[in-house]
Amino acid sequence: MALFEGGRPVMLVPETWSSPFGDTVGIAWNHATESARVVALSMPILVKAKKVVVISVDGWVHAGPDAAALQRYLEGHGIETEGRTGASGVNAGDRSLEVAASAGVDLLVKGAYTQSRLTQMIFGGATRAILDRAQIPVVFAH
Fold first, then answer.
1. Contact by Cβ (8 Å): 57, 69
2. pLDDT tens-digit series, residues 44-58
3. Using an 8 Å Cβ cutoff, are 62 and 31 in contact?
């Protein structure tokens, strides 16, 4: 409910997490409005990060700016960025987590529920996978 009704980002931190976070921030980018919204709402975090990794997954796209456009936008705000792309073939959320782990990301930023809740319940989706399996803190916004 906090994601859908709150109008604000929600941060989930794994129970076992005890390390600092926010030095290397990953953005799970699929070009969607929800992703753009969470980036805008997370700008105070992104500006303070040492590095921001824009994570895309082949085939996981909606109408909207691509990862290179997001990187240019962030760099225009003085944010050091790096782009990483995961191959398609598994759930985009799982692939995003794999790419984040390989890049040393310690905080992930993710637009939540681009697909309807019903579609997510029936078929699963990137948000559900990240909610279920993230081993790092994640900031979500819808």
1. no
2. 999 999 999 999 998
3. yes
DSSP 8-state class, residue 110: E
Across the chain, where does the E strand assignment appear? 10-12, 24-28, 51-57, 81-86, 107-111, 138-141
Contact 12, 141 (CB under 8 A): no
Q: In this predicted structure, what is the pLDDT of residue 135?
A: 94
Structure token digits, residue 130? 């990240």
* CA geometry: angle 94, 2, 139, nearest 5 deg: 40
Model pTM above 0.90: no
Measured N-to-C along each axis, helices 126-133 and 92-102 cross at an angle, to the nearest 10 degrees, of 50
Residues 6+ apart with CB under 8 A from 104: 24
How many CA atoms, within 13 angstroms, populate the side-chain half-sphere of residue 25? 24
